[in-house]
Specification:
It holds the Pfam family CHB_HEX_C_1. Helix content is 21%, strand content 27%. By secondary structure, the chain is α+β, with helices and mostly antiparallel strands.
Length: 818
């Protein structure tokens, strides 16, 4: 709020506004501009401010000797900003003044100085606005270019059909509106299926593309969709089918459905241990080297009612190791003027509160805390702290003996000691060079369905090995590692204490955040604690706040749970594939998983061949998920993590991909369920009723089996890829081309007639969720190239590092160059 002259608002329409008569003594009309008066310090203020101010009005510094002078300015009706600062010669305030008002204030003896820096921003803002509006008008007069990214139909639960469309516009402003229209199948009118407006997707302030927020239900599978822009752009593309590829069915005696209730980490670990004992020829248990902190906490008690008079104590031993046996009493002595005292008998601590001359308690929370921490016998049992950093100046009341407690509610069958994490290794040739696959679940404690997925997969592999040929081939040809619970301590806490626990149980909080009421906020987000693309390297999606749900920990890989994953993938370098199973939402994702907020700079994108391999494998994996009950993971929820979800700094998939080249996916089980009554998708949550959780475990275990099939196909891939050069456009002065491959593969090429090698330029993606780049040349060019698939097979058997010349070559003609 600012005061205004004569009680008017701060807006002005006349520059030479005359101050009230009390200030402008005998004021006469201004007929000409007199020379500018000198200011204190020799500065000069022109009658009219530079053109960067509005109507010559500016925000000027005024220095007055005292508050009385400020009051006088207010009484005169001067438009003062809510700003004041002590300076050597008085008080600096800021006033909105025209040139004449400034002169008249100086005539009254006020020290009016120069303008406040930065006020030229008004004109700059206006100019920027005019430029933006002009650009918008120009854009409105020009057709934008629409780049189709994806257009697919698919079936989901109850065989219902849905349509998903993604399109990028060259006009990135928020005023650009895209509308999709589709047919009802081949040969039907173009608009017979329906029409809908797409939503504009932005992330970290950057335009990504347009899409439907949710797949749209359709009665018939469309064959083509047309997208039109409010800017005039238009594109028509075919609609392809997403998922539903034909997969080889399991044998007639294939058995599944081995989980019938939610299981805590102790039960899950016992389950895989029992499986290893039952199938010793094709399994082994791997004890991971780093034990967790354990399902344990220090015992605590809190005293007081208001923040200033409240303090809490924490046992030095864990509750299960004697902390729960410690007690604290606050007593009021009978005598007046008693000193504050601390006595310890065994594990019982008694604080004798101080009293004043009248016998009233005079001890403050801070004094009690200091006394407890200074007493050698008491500090061996407990430490004390004021409430969340408060000064603790409030008086403490007497309290009976209170036993400290760790508050943990799990039955005694759940050990309070550091947890021995175990992985189940499955395979008949576990010591050889077989391709390894790492399946791990429950990094986040509250995701109760995920360990069931890993357990179900282990059961299927072992119990079908003897009689199902497909399972036998998987187990014989791969080296499989299954870690069903990656966060056992947090998992126990979620089951028995706080079901929404996401993190582990290790408390890294300082005293101001370690009181008993904060207990459900302690822990480290294990999927933010890895060393690649971490918060510590400036990536987005994690926090340094120890009570945040995405707390990254005190340092990279500070947590034993995560060091166990790194150890496993280093110990067994044959691991080439991985799957991290989370919930919920129905996502299927892969690296990169994080970006920096400035410029939305992601970790290095996978190359085009690997990206296409992720997509092609996804169809096989997600078709397996769909077989159970028709659940389709949407194409809009499939892709690199930042493209479809958010930035997750320090996640495990990035750790394994960038540090060890492990091709890794992330499942988010629990796809939204479509409600035909409301025609809306409904989320399922972290802990759905078990009937729903069971179905999720069944369908995503099928997805894990399909990942093993993908890995097996990779291990036996000896087929060489093929590629073609395709000219996509010509002008009189240029030609544009790209390459296509018959399987996911990278293309290396040269344009200068030299021999292509693995150091030559590599074909890249045209953009996020777009296809291959198009290369333009302005003269007739001899293009040399070769392709390499993900398994390392080279087109035509060409040896990039050798002397051979059996690479591909083609002449791209530019007409004007003839």
């Amino acid at each position: 709020m600012r005061n205004s002259l004569n009680g008017r608002g701060s807006g002005r329409v006349v520059a030479a506004f005359v101050l009230p008569v009390v200030l402008a003594l005998g004021a006469t009309p201004v007929l000409a501009s007199p020379p500018p008066p000198a200011l204190s310090g020799g500065e000069v203020v022109p009658d009219r401010q530079p053109s960067t101010t509005q109507d010559g009005v500016a925000l000027l510094r005024v220095v007055v000797p005292d508050q009385a002078a400020v009051d006088r300015l207010n009484a005169l009706g001067v438009d003062l900003a809510e700003y004041r600062k002590a300076v050597d010669d008085g008080i600096e305030v800021h006033a909105v003044l025209s040139p004449q008002e400034a002169r008249e204030l100086r005539g009254q003896g006020f020290d009016v100085r120069d303008a406040v820096p930065g006020q030229a921003a008004f004109a700059a803002n206006q100019a920027e606005r005019r430029t933006a509006m002009s650009a918008a008008v120009t854009a409105a007069q020009q057709n934008d270019t629409l780049t189709p990214l994806r257009a697919e139909w698919f079936t989901s639960t109850d065989d219902r059909r849905f349509l998903s469309v993604e399109v990028k516009s060259s006009a990135t402003d928020a005023e650009t509106v895209l509308t999709a229209t589709w047919d009802s199948g081949r040969g039907t009118p173009p608009d017979s299926g329906g029409t809908a407006t797409l939503s504009r997707l932005t992330d970290a302030g950057q335009y990504m593309y347009h899409r439907f927020d949710y797949p749209l239900p359709v009665t018939q599978a469309p064959s083509r969709v047309t997208i039109k822009s409010s800017r005039g752009g238009s594109v028509t593309v075919p609609v392809t089918k997403w998922l539903g590829e034909r997969r080889t069915p399991p044998g007639g005696h294939y058995v599944s459905d081995f989980v019938d209730h939610y299981m805590d980490p102790t039960e899950v670990t016992g389950r895989i241990t029992a499986l290893a004992a039952e199938f010793p020829r094709i399994t082994q248990i791997i004890d991971l080297p780093y034990k967790t902190n354990g399902y344990r906490r220090a015992a605590q008690a809190q005293f007081g009612t208001g923040a200033a008079s409240t303090f809490y104590v924490t046992s030095t031993a864990y509750g299960s190791q004697g902390g729960n046996d410690v007690s604290l009493a606050l007593t009021r002595p009978e005598a007046a003027s008693s000193p504050l005292s601390v006595t310890v008998t065994g594990k019982d601590v008694v604080v004798g509160l101080a009293t004043d001359a009248s016998g009233a308690i005079s001890s403050t929370a801070r004094q009690v805390v200091d006394a407890l921490n200074a007493n050698t016998a008491a500090s061996a049992l407990l430490t004390a702290a004021t409430y969340r950093g408060d000064q603790g100046g409030g008086l403490v009341a007497a309290a009976p003996a209170t036993r400290l407690t760790d508050g943990l509610k799990a039955p005694q069958s759940v050990s309070r000691e550091p947890f021995q994490m175990k992985a189940l290794r499955v395979g008949t040739k576990r010591g050889g060079p077989k391709v390894g696959v790492f399946l791990y679940c429950q990094e986040h404690a509250r995701e109760w369905v995920t360990p069931l997925v890993c357990v179900e997969t282990a059961e299927r592999l072992l119990r079908n090995y003897a009689h199902d040929p497909r399972t036998r081939r998987i187990v014989d040809d791969l080296d499989i590692f299954i870690l069903p619970t990656s966060n056992p301590d947090g998992g126990h806490y979620s089951f028995y204490d706080y079901n929404m626990q996401r993190k582990n149980m290790t408390n890294h909080c300082p005293a101001k955040a370690a009181d008993p009421a904060s207990r459900n906020s302690w822990g480290v987000d294990l999927n933010r604690n890895f060393s690649v693309g971490s918060m510590f390297d400036g990536y987005l999606g994690a926090s340094s706040d120890c009570t945040s749900g995405v707390f990254a920990g005190p340092s990279e890989l500070s947590e034993p749970e995560d060091r166990n994953q790194v150890w496993l993938t280093r110990k067994y370098p044959n691991i080439k594939f991985a799957m991290n199973t989370h919930s919920y939402g129905g996502y299927f994702m892969w690296p990169p998983g994080a970006y920096k907020e400035a410029g939305r700079e992601t970790l290095p994108r996978t190359d085009l061949g690997t990206e296409n391999y992720f997509w092609e494998s996804s169809r096989h994996i997600l078709s397996a998920v769909q077989e159970r009950r028709g659940t389709a993971i949407w194409p809009g929820r499939t892709g690199p993590v930042p493209d479809v979800l958010y930035s997750a700094a320090g996640n495990s998939a990035d750790e394994h991909w960038y540090n060890r080249g492990i091709i890794g996916w992330d499942f988010e089980v629990g796809a939204d369920l479509y409600d035909p009554a409301t025609k809306r998708f409904q989320p399922v949550g972290f802990q759905p009723p078990f009937a729903e959780g069971h179905e999720e475990a069944m369908e995503f275990s099928s997805g894990q089996i399909a990942i093993l099939e993908v890995a097996r196909a990779y291990s036996g891939d000896r087929r060489r890829p093929g590629s073609e050069l395709k000219v996509t456009g010509r002008t009189g002065a240029s030609a544009t081309f790209t390459f296509t491959t018959d399987e996911p593969a990278n293309v290396y090429y040269t344009l200068d007639g030299s021999r292509p090698t693995l150091n030559s330029p590599k074909l890249v993606a045209a953009g996020t969720r777009e296809g291959a780049q198009r290369i333009t040349v302005d003269r007739t060019t001899e293009v040399h190239w070769f392709s390499v698939d993900i398994a390392g097979n080279v087109e035509r058997g060409y040896r990039p590092g050798g002397p051979g010349a059996n690479y591909r070559r083609q002449r791209v003609e530019v007409r004007g160059d003839r």
